[in-house]
Amino acid sequence: MLPPIPVRLPMSFLFPRAKPRVSAIPERLDLAGGPVAVTVRRNPRAKRMILRLAPGASGVVVTAPRQVSGRAIAEFLERHRGWVEERVARAPGHVVVADGATIPFRGGTLRLVSAPERRASRFETVDGEACLMVGGAPEHFVRRVVDTLKREARQDLQAAVDRHAATVGLRPRSMALKDTRSRWGSCTIDRRLAFSWRIVMAPPEVLDYLAAHEVAHFREMNHGASFWALCRELCPGMDHGRDWLKRHGAGLHAIDCSGA
């Protein structure tokens, strides 16, 4: 009987490496049409995970029981990637900010054009079409578009706020721009204003209503009859502005700037 032949087994055989575990919840889900943001909401009353699109198909929202692990949520998102792809693609008005895309702007449209040979971005009219020529490296395209829109939004909002503030005789303490989904504007009791910069994509009269609405809170920190009377005094066309946001506001949230 031949003696046994010693065999040296690799350490990986004796102590196999565990498969890498996906534990972190992704901040974004990379899709064919571009990344979408991921928001996770823990609900102690939830019995299972629920997936839905955020307003304007700008992202996805996962509602999960409190005890569900990050790994389970990440795997849940991966299993339903196809569902998200399909729903985002079918969402009305969903536009990804990219070279050649057209977005709403001040009640009209604005074509986004990459111009890497330029150092700065500027507005131009090309063949009768309003364009934003976006300077700088292509990898900074989305950020530069958002920066430009924020700058224009601040300019328009500041002018509207100053006008309405002069009427009520009170000045704002500060004004911030955000990218909120739940509200277009807010005002604190000490007159600190915050607005969604996306309002610059709406018609100017809608932006004016939003500014009037928040400035009216300088006098009336409620939504009672006196508040609405003051709001109407500041902005006689407030009904149009309010209705426009209800009907078309989700379309502005559908402009996907997640690559910024």
UniProtKB/TrEMBL annotation:
GO terms for molecular function: hydrolase activity. Keywords: Hydrolase. This is Putative metal-dependent hydrolase. CDD domains: M48_yhfN_like. PANTHER family: UNCHARACTERIZED PROTEIN YGJP (PTHR30399), UTP PYROPHOSPHATASE (PTHR30399:SF1). Residues 51-248 form the YgjP-like metallopeptidase domain. The keyword Hydrolase applies. It comes from the Bacteria.
